[in-house]
Structures are given as C-alpha cells and as structure tokens.
UniProtKB/TrEMBL annotation:
Protein family per UniProt: Belongs to the iron/ascorbate-dependent oxidoreductase family.
InterPro entries in the record: DIOX_N, IPNS-like_FE2OG_OXY, IPNS-like_sf, Iron_ascorbate_oxido_reductase, Oxoglu/Fe-dep_dioxygenase_dom
Domain Fe2OG dioxygenase: 166-271
Keywords from the UniProt entry: Iron, Metal-binding, Oxidoreductase
GO molecular function: metal ion binding; oxidoreductase activity
UniProt keyword Membrane present: no
This protein's name: Fe2OG dioxygenase domain-containing protein
PROSITE patterns per UniProt: FE2OG_OXY (PS51471)
Highest taxon listed in the record's lineage: Eukaryota
Amino acid sequence: MVTETIPVVDLSSKNLIHGTPTWVSACNDVRKAMEQHGCFKAIFYGGGGDSSSSTQLHNDIFAAAGELFSLPTETKQRNTSSKPYFDYFGQSQLFPLTESLAVDHPTSSLATRSFADVMWPAGNLSFCESTISFSKVTAELDQTVMRIICESYGVDGGHYEYYLEAANYVLRFYRYTVPKTAGESNVGLGAHADKSMISILRQSIRGLQIKAPDDDSWVEVDEMSPSSFLVMAGDALMAWSNGRIKSCRHQVIMSEKETRYSVGLSSVINGVVHIPTELGYYSSSNDDDGEVEEEESGKPFRCRAFDHFGLLQFIRSGEAKNYDSAIQDYCGVV
C-alpha cells in the first residue's frame, strides 16, 4: 500500500460556467487526472444542492442498500436482465464475500419502480425516491465529466450530444461481508478495470483500492465525504480516447471488521462507441517508399468503433481470451 493520494477536482462551484477560467481550470484538472490516474475524486453537489443535501443523499442511499440486501437471497435473484452484467451477482465461489444487484435506467421513475416491485411486491416508495435522487445527481456528474473531457480534447460537440442520447445508466448496489474465518480470503473483488465509459462510486467504509499509475502498488481510497464521488474511467472510455485516458484498475479488499456497502453508477453506450477522428488516424496506407504516412493527428487508432453491449456480450459468452484484454480482442486494430 502506498501513501500517494488520488487527485481531487472541485466541480461544486457555482462559478463552474462554460467558458470561464474556473471551467478551463476544471477541464485541465480532469484531463490530467484521467490521463495519469484513470480516476479522480469529484466534489459535487448537483442540482443546486449543498453539503446538507449531500449528507441526506448519502444517508438515504446507504439506508436503501441495507434494506435491499436484507431481502432473502431467492428474492434478490429475481434481479434478471437480457443485458449482460445488468443482473444479480452473488453466491460466487470465486468471490464469496460479494453480492450485487443492478437497477437499469435508475434515473427513470418507471424503471426504478419496476425494479422495486420485483423486490417488494407491495412496492417501496422510499427505496425508489432514494435511488432516483442519488442516480440523478450522479448522472449529472457523469455528464459534466464527459462534457469536460470532450472539450478538453477539442472533440466535435456532436460526440457529447450523442453521449447524452445513447448513455444507458445502470446503478449497482454492492455488499461485501467480513470473512468468516482467519483463513478465508479477504478479497471482495479481484483487480480489474470496468468495461463502462465512466463509473462513479460511493462507499460506506474503506476497502476500495486503486492501482498506482507507475508501479504494481495499490492506493487505498480513504474515507469520502458525502459530497465526494470517485470517478473512474472504464475500458470503453480508454478506447474512445485512443489510449490517452487510462482505464482505472481497482480491487476491493475487506480490511475492516464490518460489512461494506458501495453504490456505483456506470454508463454503457446503447449502440456504437465512435472514436473521434480528432484523436487519431488509421495507419492502413503506405507511401511509395514503404514508410507509413504520418498525419497531423499524430496517433494511430488503437480500436475501431464498436458496439458497447456487443463487447459485454463478447465477455459474458466466454469468447474473450481474458477479461483484461477483452476490448483489444473485440475491436482492436491489428
């Protein structure tokens, strides 16, 4: 474990207005953090909120998580979906400490109520209200970060508009229990990078670790205030940026002596992830002397445009050689 800190970017300022010095500074800070670390802590209230509303939001969403996981296992296993990785995870021999459920389209009242009705046949209004409120604030942060990323790279505004239209949000609730015996593994989730565009997490207690950018050590994500979120780049965003942004490799280690909860909102493109032409070129043609022609964009594309849900299905089906190299196997340029 190393003492290196994760970058912090304050996106809560009421002066964070497009085109202002505050906005330009935020663009620089977010881009630097994502390129060097693949993540950062964002201070964000959302919707004109403040520290008081953030505390209430924090308390409410973790109360909802506790209520959800208190349900019988057979009830939680009703969380099914035709979309890969949008369903229940648990009772795993590989990660026995971990259980997770997913709410598809969690900013939608209709979709969230539909999920709640499966878990609680009589409905659960407070769960729905907490889930929708948290998801709307987190989705607002996600969209702010994506707009900043697009503008910092000088990417055509159409890419951001497409993201707003095509982003399919999923909210995952996680519970990690304490190992029952001294000899049991304390690994909640093994080291991996998400396959999302962006994942935004909030945790109840410590346990999340981020791989340090320059070596094989790990940085523990310390206690987070109710107004802070961990923003992580997924492999899809790494591909979208033509390798400029690092995907955030992370793991969960249960070092505390109490149950750990976390909540994470991830964005998956419902359709094709298009790689902006401003960020690279295809080095498929050679000039007369056999040398690859260099273009002004300066960096050949690593990946072709790809169907995001197709990538997830490629992994789920077992076609991928391994999880870590799946995106290169699926859409990498040979």
